[in-house]
Amino acid sequence: MKQGLVIKSTGSWYTVKAEDGEIHNCRIKGRFRMDGIRTTNPISVGDRVDFEVENEADVIVNIHERKNYIIRKSSNLSKHSQIIASNIDQAFLIVTVNYPLTTTTFIDRFLAAAEAYRIPVSLIFNKIDRYRPNDKDRLYDLRHTYSKIGYKCYEISAKQGIHIEQMKEILKGKINLLSGHSGVGKSTLINKIQPGLDLKTGEISEAHAQGKHTTTFSEMFELDFGGYIIDTPGIRGFGTIDMAKEEMSHFFPEIFKKSQQCQFNNCTHVHEPQCAVKAAVEIGEICMSRYESYLGMIMEDEDNKYRI
Ligand code: GDP
Ligand code: ZN
After folding, report:
1. How far apart are CA 26 and CA 51, in angstroms?
2. Region for 86 from its dihedrals, namely left if φ exceeds 0, alpha if ψ lies in -120 to 50, beta otherwise
3. Distance (Å, whole) CA 87 – CA 7
4. What mean pLDDT comes out for the span 235-240?
5. Least crowded by CB within 10 Å, which of 102, 133, 192, 193?
6. pTM above 0.85, yes or no
7. Nearest to 82 by CA among 302, 239, 219, 212
8. Section 224-229 average pLDDT
9. Is the pLDDT score of 279 beyond 60?
10. pLDDT at 39 over 70
11. What is the CATH number of domain 69-231?
């Protein structure tokens, strides 16, 4: 029996990189039920598996316990989920304060989802070469807001190659999820980091991703200097995640910390008296835009779960 890492999945075939570096094409035999979720595709990229080498096709016989995974539901009502990727070491949201604008609502939803999935997450501000003074002010504000909470913030220009070496250091040896609105420069960044990949940039890449929305195919790009980047066509962020209203504040670290001082231990920080969170927002200790994102998420229609 051998051990390896699943680096590509087509739904019926899995590409596994064994510990000795050899590539094996594997199938699965029997049934897997992992983590108590019903899934149409039990194995995903990022899974560590045991497999038997056989004549016809190698066979995956065991999946190691996952430290985390991200899922996509087939539909809102469906109990069936598809695991998109597992064992993600870190996630990055690529943010542009202009060309195009990334809103704080979008940033905060992404960060909250990462917290819910227990995936360490950082922000990469791209296109710093293009910003005018107004944009720069906005960038410094955001950087201040998020680094104060504890999120790492990086500033790069993928196009001009600014701080790319630093990015490589950070990605090295890890399984990385890169995300961001279309047009923020994700493909440009990946191409700079790993030139051989030759990802399409601009409009074409977007049309391509849209068309593949229902595919079960996902893949990790191996980095020459060690590590992987997850690319899941059609998924710009995290897929679907169910976050209960009551536990929403757990996914906003600074709100959660402050909530220990609220009068009621089940305080939702909306209407309750003696709310430490609201008081902190008033004096600017907790950023208003973060609080607004939090409110937006708890007020949202129950049926409309977070598709980030
Ligand atoms: P994606 O949709 O996130 O993959 O974005 P692309 O990589 O396709 O980039 C979208 C557009 O932004 C392209 O025209 C890129 O040339 C441009 N772009 C990407 N990174 C930068 C950057 O750092 N500075 C500037 N000025 N333009 C960039
Ligand atoms: Zn409160």
Report:
1. 8
2. beta
3. 12
4. 61
5. 133
6. yes
7. 239
8. 96
9. yes
10. no
11. 3.40.50.300
